[in-house]
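S2.1 Query sequence (Large ribosomal subunit protein bL25)
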Amino acid sequence: MKSIEIKGSVRSDVGKKATHELRKNNGVPCVLYGVQKDENGLPVATHFSVPTEGLRNLVYTPHIYVVDLNIDGKIVNAILKDIQFHPVTDAILHVDFYQIDEAKPIVMEVPVQMEGLAEGVRAGGKLALQLRKLKVKALYNVIPERLIIDVTSLGLGKTIKVGELSYEGLELINAKEAVVCAVKLTRAARGAAATAGK
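Output structure tokens follow.
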């Protein structure tokens, strides 16, 4: 996985007024959930802010990254866990990060990439990717940048489901019956099949 550095500053005031002021000045309130736990067993949280510009390359990209969070000079390895957008303007309202514990698996969405020319496409069908990302659970250093699926032997009207896929060191979290990709019958393919059947 590629890494990306994001610089932020600790927030001393996390009240509504301060948050509103921060957003007005093109800042985004963020929370880092750390590896250490408090007395209730919950991750210790660090409230900080990042300029909107500083999040652009992390948020608006098909790639996944390990984030080197530089909060007032202290660097922490983390992953993007959750992001909230404004319902109208699509502005980034809030971002949650989770600190990476090298000994514990993390859950992350990884982009899917299809490879090969499917048999069904050669027969006139259309290849459709139903799930652009799959949720995986693994140690962060074995998570690939993308999950490659070989579709060469995928025939007309056939699908590949999550349960048919396996990757070394990764546990797929999505429902096993969920369809990842399919070769759909086009009108032309249907016509050809009907003619061949006569």
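The chain has two domains: 2-100, 107-197. Residues 2-100 form a domain with the Ribosomal Protein L25; Chain P fold (CATH 2.40.240.10).
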